[in-house]
Amino acid sequence: MTPDDIKEALKQVKYPGFSRDIVSFGLVRSAALVDGTAKVSLALATSDPKIPLHLKQEIEKCLQSLPGVKATVVDIAVAPAAKATPTGGNLAGNTSAPKTIQYAVAIASGKGGVGKSTFAVNLACGLAQILTAKGRPGKVGLMDCDIYGPSVPLMIGLEGRPMVEGDNLLPMEKHGVKVMSMGFLVDDNTPVVWRGPMIMKTIQQFVQNVKWGELDILIVDLPPGTGDAQLSLVQTLPLDGAVLVTTPQPAATNVARKGGLMFQKVNVPLLGVAENMSYFLDPSGQKHSLFGEGGGQKTADSLGTVLIGQVPLIQEIRAGGDAGKPVVVSSPESEAARIFRAIGEDILSQLARKHLP
After folding, report:
1. 139 and 256 belong to one structural domain
2. Rounded CA separation 228/351 (Å)
3. Binning pLDDT at 50, 70 and 90, where does residue 69 land?
4. Which has more confidence, 159 or 89?
5. CATH number (domain holding residue 30)
6. Which helix (H) or strand (E) holds 201?
7. Predicted confidence band of residue 145 (pLDDT cuts 50, 70, 90)
8. Which structural domain, as residue segments, surrounds residue 47?
């Protein structure tokens, strides 16, 4: 049995709280079968003493089921996970994120199709308006980590290629928001067909090799799910919080809850749940719950957090994204824009309270 055979078998062992296995996460340093003894070594960084013990038990169980294995030796090197902020945490202890970013907040969803990127773009633009009014223009960043389907450039109205300064990319800017996206780096007709390590490397470069400058807040638009991009982010950028975006129906809220549990597993505080497409407003102003109601609140309650806002299903939000003029910018006095800014104010207030001495 070769080392590759052992590693292939170890793909059955999942990292606690994730659907990905320890091999694809790059945690297995070596594997070998010597005189009937299967020897495996791992390296990980965590502050949770239960994780190494759990992994050791699962690895031993996996190895003992292999033909020709009479004994097992599992060596796990554990480094403490460093924290770069009072409340944020990460899995790998990599805190090489820019020190010029005051707060970093992830916008996530368990599944696609809930309007997460639309929410992230409008939230970023709303935050830019809030901070500009406070005399701090240009202090909002938006990092599009949806590697496979980057839609932020279209929604915020940017195209072209970012400038390069030395070893760093310079983010592009629109509506007072500094933006970096995979959409700037590939052609529209070129699909991104990448495996996990390439995704992890790209996200690390978006954090470490983009000259963001001084930011009050960096909004990070994550792809759906709990895979490579999510793990790479918490390994690279200590997050101060996460916002879960869902629609009201159980098909969305059940998966969103799993996304929330993932952030709790890696010690990222949940700032709240945002319910998108919450209701439809007809011309008379009457509300219609097209996708049901109460799902966002139930998700927040189950995760021990708050419902941070309900965004209506209106044509102006969709049209603004298609035209590259988010509704917060095109109709700043509209009800939708007011809701996005209120969510932004709530997030800034929570972050300030969490970081009080």
Report:
1. yes
2. 26
3. very high
4. 159
5. 3.30.300.130
6. helix 196-208
7. confident
8. 3-79
Half-sphere exposure of 261 (CA within 13 A, CB side): 13
Given the structure tokens 């799902």, which residue do they identify? 295
Determine the 3-state secondary structure of 6 from DSSP.
helix
Contact, 6 vs 33, CB < 8 A? yes
At residue 94, does pLDDT exceed 50?
Answer: no
Residue 248 φ/ψ, nearest 5 degrees: -70, -25
Query: What dihedral do alpha carbons 306, 228, 110, 62 form, nearest 10°?
Result: -100
Residues 130 and 269 in one domain: yes
The whole-model pTM stands at 0.69
Residue 289 is given by DSSP the state -
If asked whether residues 60 and 178 sit together in one domain, one would say no
Say what angle helices 335-354 and 116-133 make with each other, to 10 degrees: 70
The span from the CA of 185 to the CA of 311, in Å, is: 31
Reported as a single tens digit per residue, the pLDDT across 263-308 is 777 778 889 999 988 888 777 877 887 777 878 888 888 888 899 9
Within this chain, do residues 132 and 254 fall inside the same structural domain, yes or no? yes
42 & 113 share domain? no
Within this chain, do residues 272 and 328 fall inside the same structural domain, yes or no? Answer: yes
In a domain, 192, yes or no: yes
- My answer on whether 185 and 266 are in the same domain is yes
Token reading at 54: 């759990």
- Give the model's pLDDT for residue 135: 92
Cα distance between residue 267 and residue 284, in whole Å: 45
